[in-house]
Amino acid sequence: MEDSYIEFKVTTNPEFVELLGDFVATVTNEAVEFGEDFVILRTTNDTLELEQKLDALKDTIELSYQKEEKANIDWIKKYQDSVQPIEAGEFYVYPSWYEPKKGKINILINPALAFGSGHHATTFSCLGAISKYVKRGDTLLDVGCGSGILALAGAYKGAEVDLCDTDPLAVDSAKENFELNNQTYNKIWEGSVNKTNQKYDIVVANIIADVLKILANELKNRIKANGYLILSGILDKKETIVTNEFSDLVLIQRVAKDEWVTLIYKG
Q1: Alpha helices in the chain (DSSP H)
Q2: Which are the contacts of 248, defined by CB distance < 8 A and separation ≥ 6?
Q3: Are 267 and 223 in contact (CB under 8 A)?
Q4: Is the pLDDT confidence value at 74 over 70?
Q5: Are the beta carbons of 85 and 105 closer than 8 angstroms?
Q6: Contact 127/104 with Cβ under 8 angstroms?
C-alpha cells in the first residue's frame, strides 16, 4: 500500500455533478464519490491529465478543483462502506460486498467507471418506473445507459433490451454489468438514439433536460403507439424545457425526488 494518496475534489453546480462524475471517471478509469455539488476522486496516480482536461471545460461548465495529499488509509474499504444497497420498486441494487435480498429482483452493480448504482434520485425514480410499466416480452431501449442499470432492470423484468451511450467506457461498463448479472441484451452501441430506426414498447432516457430537448423528436419517434417514454435527469427548475418539447404526448406520471423530476409519457 502507498504511504499517501491524492484526494481530488471537483466542485460544480448540482446539475453538473452527474456529468462531471462521469467525466472524471472516464479520464482516470477510477471510481469516484458523488456529493450534492461535488465529486471526489481518491487516487495514487498523477492527476495532471485530469487537471488539463478540467481546465479546458471551464469555459462551458462552472467548476473548480482542489487536491490534497493525505496519509493512506484503507480508502477502498471506506468507499465500499459508503455504498449501501438500495431498494427501488421491485429491485434491490447491491454491490458485490453485500448479499442479495430474498423476495426482490436483485441487480448486482459494482460502482466504478460509469455513473449509475441506483443511489441518484433520477436512477432511483427510473427503476421505480421500470418496475411499474415494463412487462415480459416488451422491447426496451436505454438511451445514455451509463452502467447499464436501467437496461438490466428491464432485462430482469423479461424485456428484450437495446442500450447505447456516447461514452465508450460506459458501453464497456454496461457490457460487464450484464455479464456480471448473467443477463443478455439484444444490441448495444456507442452513440445515441439516432443510430436505430426500431420502435420500442419502452424508451428510457436518463440524461439531462437540455439533451432531452435536443433528442426530443428522435425519442418520440422510437416509441410504438401506446408505448411508454421514461424521461429523467431533469432538475425541477428545468422541467418546462422538457414538458414543452413533449406536450404532444400524454403525461401519465410525474415523480419528484429531491430536486429531480422523472416524467413518464404514453405515446
Answers
A1: 17-28, 48-57, 75-82, 121-133, 149-156, 168-180, 209-214, 216-221, 239-245
A2: 220
A3: yes
A4: no
A5: no
A6: no
pLDDT confidence bin for 114, thresholds 50/70/90: very low
Are the beta carbons of 209 and 235 closer than 8 angstroms? yes
Cα–Cα dist 70/256, whole Å: 38
Ramachandran angles phi, psi of 227, nearest 5°:
-80, 170
Query: Could you give all domains of the chain from N- to C-terminal order, each with its CATH number?
Result: 4-79 (3.30.70), 83-266 (3.40.50.150)
- Give yes or no for residue 113 having a pLDDT over 50: no
The x, y and z cell numbers of residue 185, run together, are 441484451
User: Is the pLDDT confidence value at 187 over 90?
Assistant: yes
Percent of the chain residues past pLDDT 90, beyond the cut: 69
Quickly tell me which residue has 496516480 as its cell.
Answer: 45
- Cell 442479495 found at: 100
| Mean pLDDT, range 218-232, rounded to an integer | 97
C-alpha cell at position 248: 404532444
Given strand 223-235, what is the order of strands in its sheet?
187-190, 160-165, 139-143, 200-206, 223-235, 260-266, 250-257
Q: What is the DSSP secondary structure assignment for residue 5, as one 8-state letter? A: E
Burial environment of residue 114 by CB neighbours within 10 A (0 to 12, 13 to 18, 19 or more): buried
Overall size of the chain counted in residues: 267
- Residues in contact with 73: Cβ distance below 8 Å, sequence separation at least 6, in sequence order: none
